[in-house]
Specification:
There is one protein chain. The protein is an alpha+beta fold and 430 residues long. The longest helix is centred in the middle third of the chain and has 13 residues. The two termini are 27 Å apart. The protein contains 15 helices and 23 strands. The strands form 6 sheets. It has a 4-stranded mixed β-sheet. The chain has a 4-stranded mixed β-sheet with strand order 2-14-16-15, covered by helices on one side. The chain has a 4-stranded mixed β-sheet with strand order 4-5-3-13, covered by helices on one side. Helix 8 packs parallel to helix 10, helix 10 packs parallel to helix 12 and helix 11 runs parallel beside helix 12. The model has no long low-confidence stretch (mean pLDDT 94). Bound molecules: uridine-diphosphate-2(N-acetylglucosaminyl) butyric acid. Uridine-diphosphate-2(N-acetylglucosaminyl) butyric acid binds next to helix 1, helix 5, helix 6 and helix 12.
């Protein structure tokens, strides 16, 4: 039986609930973070709406302030970024180390100021997270790149357009190079570009600013540089990973959930995988309805860049399949170290074996509450969901990972019938 320690910071989940009702997903973390960075490209005040209230966003806002922007958060999700004529060129190591997306400041800073010095970006530990394609793309645009053990410096009086062939459809490299190319001289073509919906959201944001971009959402993005950009007003797309998290939570708890605020086209493959396991999924104009209740059956899942099944939902699928009848294989193709959830789920009673980049999941196995650790953001959220189906109490430690990407997770799950608390006993003791 798991016990709360006096100094524990955790999600505490009591299992046995059935989720029902309606949930509106937040704006997409992985879009909002890039749009906030993009706001630096134009002097004046940009307004970004539907920004999720998560720690990663607050870290990015602090980075923008450090660079000289004036930040105002109006109501929950409505953010104003006032960008002065002169902005800073260096990020603080303390802030950058907390956030992978700090890397996308390289493009806007070098494009706008001619120099960017970035402290080593942080983020989840998912194995190798190299940045070679970001740097070689910028070098191809004429930038001079220097690197130290914990910093990167990029300089270019003005970047110039070029042809870039990405070895892999990297989300971050595509975004950084788009952000750099919009103010470069001439035309930049990015081939084998990432096609995630967040790339299209960024392109729409930049187009509203006056940028010339064609082909975002396809493997070839063409950007014709302009001399200056103007501030914008933009609504962030819904978070497809948060939507997928609630969908799996509904499916494993035999729930009945209307998930709103996201385009179901962003989740075609994961939703088809849910249907393959026997879950009833109905699309609506602004979301979808998920009904569990039938027997779950095994299926295979392989993660791939969009439109493939997102790696950010891989831990949730491993959980789902641990409750399905039969043997499933989950193949991770994006990261070389993203099976952190397996050990934790095994401690709760799941039967999962990892061979290379495959996880073999045998189900259904009843889960029992235990003390488990959020090894990263998505694994952490999936463990909270696992606690909903486990018997007894599950304590998910290292909740800071979950706070980085899921807004008010415990409250929103409670509103759907779950018994979940986000406890900070240390803070309570003060
Ligand atoms: N890669 C390289 N070289 C590069 C860039 C990437 O080898 O220059 C490799 C990475 O090592 C990794 C793979 O390519 O194995 C994927 O990296 P990608 O650049 O596509 O991902 P990212 O931009 O670092 C974003 C999301 C991740 C999400 C991935 C894939 C943000 C802030 N992060 O990361 O989200 O998993 O795309 O979809 O947008 C999360 O939200 O929990 C999360 C980890």
């Amino acid at each position: 039986m798991s016990k709360l320690q006096p100094d524990m910071d955790a999600f505490v989940v009591r299992g046995g609930c059935r989720l029902s009702g309606e949930v509106v997903v937040s704006g997409a973390k992985n879009s909002a973070l890039k749009l906030l960075a993009a706001a630096l490209l134009a002097e004046g005040t940009s307004r970004i709406r539907n920004v999720p209230d998560i720690v990663d966003v607050h870290t990015m806002l602090a980075m923008l302030e450090h660079l000289g922007a004036a930040v105002a958060v109006r109501e929950d999700a409505d953010v104003l970024i006032g960008v002065p004529a002169e902005i800073g060129q260096e990020t603080s190591s303390d802030l950058a180390a907390r956030l992978r997306a700090s890397l996308v400041l390289l493009g806007p800073l070098v494009a706008r100021t001619g120099r960017a010095r970035l402290a080593q970006p942080g983020g989840c530990n998912l194995g190798n997270r190299s940045i070679d394609m970001h740097l070689s793309g910028l070098a191809g645009m004429g930038a001079d790149i220097q690197m130290g053990p914990d910093w990167i410096e990029v300089r270019a009086a003005r970047l110039h357009g070029t042809d870039i062939d990405l070895e892999y459809a990297s989300v971050g490299a595509t975004e950084n190079l788009m952000l750099a190319a919009v103010l470069a001289s001439g035309r930049t073509t990015i081939r084998n570009a990432a096609r995630e919906p967040e790339i299209e959201d960024l392109a729409i944001f930049l187009q509203k600013m006056g940028a010339e971009i064609d082909g975002a959402g396809t493997p070839e993005v063409v950007i014709s540089g302009v001399d200056s950009l103007r501030p914008v007003d933009h609504w962030v797309i819904g978070d497809r990973i948060e939507a997928g998290t609630f969908a799996v939570a509904a499916a494993v708890t035999n729930g009945d959930l209307a998930i709103r605020g996201v385009d179901p086209a962003f989740l075609q493959l994961p939703l088809s995988k849910l249907i393959a396991t026997g879950v009833d999924v109905r699309e609506r104009a602004d979301g979808f309805v998920v009904r569990g209740g039938g027997e779950l059956v095994a299926t295979d899942v392989a993660t791939l860049p969009f439109p493939g099944c997102p790696t950010d939902l891989q831990p949730h699928f491993i959980l789902l399949l641990s409750q399905a009848h039969g043997t499933s294989m989950v193949t991770e193709n994006v990261y070389d170290g993203r099976f952190g959830i397996v050990r934790q789920l095994r401690a709760m009673g799941a039967e999962i074996e990892v061979t290379g980049h495959h996880a073999i999941v045998r189900g259904p196995r009843p889960l029992r509450g235990n003390r488990v650790m959020a090894t990263d953001l998505r694994a952490g959220a999936a463990l909270v969901v696992a606690g909903l189906v486990a018997s007894g109490t599950t304590i998910v430690t290292e909740p800071r990972h979950i706070d980085r990407g899921y807004a008010h997770f415990a409250e929103r799950l409670r509103a759907l019938g779950a018994d979940v608390e986000r406890v900070t006993t240390r803070a309570l003791a003060v």
